[in-house]
Amino acid sequence: MGNGRVVLVTGASRGLGAAIARRLGRDGFRVAVNYWSNQGMAGNVVEKIAGAGGAAKAFKADVTKPGEIKALLADIASAWGEVEILVNNATGPQPEKPIEGYEWKDFEDQIDFFVKSPFLFMKELVGPMKKARWGKIINIVSEVAANCRPGFSPYIAAKCAQLGLTRAWALELAPWNIMVNAINPGWIPTERHAGVDSADIEKYRSQVPMGRQGVPDDVASAVAYFAAEETNFISGQCLAVNGANTI
Length: 247
Fold this sequence. Notes:
- With about 250 residues, this protein is of the alpha/beta class.
- It has a single domain, classed as NAD(P)-binding Rossmann-like Domain (Rossmann fold).
- About 45% of the residues lie in helices and about 15% in strands.
- The protein is built from seven helices and seven strands.
- A seven-stranded parallel beta sheet has the order 3-2-1-4-5-6-7, with helices on both faces.
- The protein is globular and about 45 Å long.
- About 40% of the residues are buried.
- The model has no long low-confidence stretch (mean pLDDT about 95).
């Protein structure tokens, strides 16, 4: 269980982040629910965690901005102490275009969320984690890092880079007992997919060996696994949560 450890979940006001935050709250962690634009939804996540007997607070910050990351971590430290577990989940728009339709800015936008943001957090947290000789970083990557998909080259490039960071950091930080792991979810419909054609969803579902799409709680369970004390000898690993769609 969480034993009151402080965990920060970025982009936790809805979708996968909200499910992850609720599960970690239920498991006994003190959960910092990060949001950027939707205070109401973040507050709802906090209320659900508190209603189930857990501890949670909402913290606003743009996790691609160094100054806001510093302020966010300072606010959490003031409330509870240093962040001990970080779940890098925040994401932005994920446009689908042919190669000739993209500009370099589209790549930069994806890199900001999946490379820059984890790096900025790590810069701030690695010192306290080394001093404590304990810490966990859990990166929410994507099955596209293994199963590429046409039309999403900036997103795929950034997610592959995030997976590379996971492996490099796991090796570098192992001597300090800092564990870095990744989760590769399949396509799991959330609020952001409200306008997606049902035929596209069905096409994807038909290709999944288990014959269904996952739900946010499937990813939350995988995060809870990596966050638990029982997995303190696991690092540098990537866990696919997609019904055997990646072997």
